[in-house]
Amino acid sequence: NAIDSGKVKWSSPSNIALVKYWGKREHQIPENPSISFTLSNCKTVTEVTFTKKESDSYSFEVYFEGEKNEAFKPKIQTFFERIEVYVPFIKDYHFKIETSNTFPHSSGIASSASGMSAIALCLMSVEEKLTEIMMSKDYFNKKASFLARLGSGSACRSIEGELVVWGQNKSTESSDLYGIKFDGEVHPNFKNYQDTILLVDKGEKQVSSTVGHQLMYGHPFAHQRFEQAHENLANLKAILASGDQKAFINIIESEALTLHAMMMTSMPYFILMKPNTLQIINKIWNYRNENDSNICFTLDAGANVHVLYPEIEKESVLEFIKNDLAAYCQNGHFITDHAGNGAELI
Ligand code: PMV
Hints:
The chain is of the alpha+beta class. The protein has 2 domains: 5-184, Ribosomal Protein S5, domain 2 (2-Layer Sandwich), CATH 3.30.230.10; 192-338, 2-Layer Sandwich (Alpha-Beta Plaits), CATH 3.30.70. Helices cover 35% and strands 24% of the residues. It has helices at residues 73-83, 112-131, 137-151, 209-214, 222-242, 245-264, 275-291, 314-325; strands spanning 5-19, 24-25, 29-30, 34-52, 59-64, 67-68, 93-101, 163-166, 179-181, 194-198, 296-299, 305-309, 334-338, 344-345. Strands 1, 4, 5, 6, 7, 8, 9 and 14 form an 8-stranded mixed β-sheet that branches. The protein has a 4-stranded antiparallel β-sheet with strand order 11-12-10-13. The two termini are 24 Å apart. The structure holds (3R)-3-hydroxy-3-methyl-5-(phosphonooxy)pentanoic acid. (3R)-3-hydroxy-3-methyl-5-(phosphonooxy)pentanoic acid binds next to helix 4. InterPro entries: GHMP_kinase_C_sf (IPR036554), Mev_decarb (IPR005935), MVD-like_N (IPR053859), Mvd1_C (IPR041431), Ribosomal_Su5_D2-typ_SF (IPR020568), Ribsml_uS5_D2-typ_fold_subgr (IPR014721).
């Protein structure tokens, strides 16, 4: 490689799954397909400075929010080991990785999706610079998503937006190896969908998603669950086209509760929801009934609640959140976000 040094910078968002990925095989291959809304405000901004060095082992340093960070290094080391065969130049350069999140750290928001996709995109830009070949956008995005998947499975759904599918299935164009922009029709009811994240518990989760995925091996309901995800995705595809909001809600909330039901029925079993998670879910159900609203909730692998609602309800739902739901959040803290178009080169 003729180039001695350079700099690249990307911002990459988080995403929220509608049909959940829970259970994987070797090499981060998902056991079932998933689909997510890419978010917009919750993102990671990462700058990578690369400098030529002797080609022996990996060399990188990490700065998080301006300060040297050692905690992320093992994860990045593992990531580099997994992707080296696909980006062999990573041994020829020293990387300074400077990263920050737009959302408060230790908010319980999974930053692995935005963080890993941002590094993957930076490495793709480095590859483009070193080879001096302009890649097609399609190839660039697919390979970035492929690399991101090897960092954190769900990270492969953060490259594009507003809806991304990951995992082979019969209903949509897709792959187990990377995420693809959802190819189906989307009714205006589901455009620019809103997601307000209620920060119920900002602490470190007791069970990591890595362990959670592993517990799907030998899980008594694993087979049925993986089948159900295929069915839910097929049904959701039709619903997204028709604009049927009640049917949308049924799938989205069932998916969230099923994800947590898998945790509660694994061995060992565990519960990531907190009392306030349940308080909020009940409040959402009451509000929906009383106001003929299309608000619903979904959950990640944690206690926080994602409140999903159509754009036309934005004003009234935000009032409801401020007046009624914020009380169940840690320090009254919530983050308003909405579906977005994916990562951006800076
Ligand atoms: O990407 P991981 O390995 O942290 O798994 C995330 C899994 C869920 O967030 C619970 C669901 C999903 O599809 O994003």
